[in-house]
Design a protein that fits this description.
alpha/beta; 11 strands; BirA Bifunctional Protein, domain 2; eight-stranded mixed beta sheet
Length: 247
Amino acid sequence: MLRLDLPPLTPAEQLAADEVILDGCEAGLGGETLIFWEPRETFVVVGYANKVATEVNVAACEKGSVPIFRRCSGGGTIVQMPGGLNYSLILSISETGPTRNITAANQFIMKKNRDAIENVFLQSTVRNPQSAISIRGHTDLCLGSEKIAGNAQRRRKKFLLFHGTLLLNCDLNCIGDLLLMPSLEPDYRARRSHEEFVTNLNLPAEIVKSALAEVWNATEPFQNPPFAEIEKLAREKYATREWNFKF
């Protein structure tokens, strides 16, 4: 598998990169890839079908000059911020393999990711039931009962995109300021506030990236990333109000 560590880009470019590389693989221009990027600023990202006014405290975002973006995959609304680590997996779809449908892909990917994260986390702490890394809901990773990562999936005919954000060393207090309570939530959340629901993994990004790269055997560097295409899609789509506020 290929590995791509994206340099600092604009938020719109970071989001566009997933779609550009997915579409490139679909067109036969690349293979399975693991992508990493770390936000350098705070911004809100709604899931593809989310209604901004329902999920986001728009007034607070405007007051704090926090931009709002929309991604190409489903799932809930999140706050991207320094201290978070984003990963994206571009995987081929096999008719009989573990990526054959949404549910099978979720289970396959989440188990591998959980095993990788748990392994490095338990090396840094004392093993106890409250420090176990578990899969909750459909695609959440949790530390005990608190969420440390959410994930989403988008499928083409030949390849899928599965991506997520790991909370490593984030200022979690800002989430409750910028987001409303979600319109949909997993049962295990039990109406907890944002501050009560999430927590940091408190691990360096490089350790987590190495663990994920190892479990996915992402050892071959991605050559010549399509930055021109990424910038173009960001400018024409991900940076536009028509896309970000379409719902």
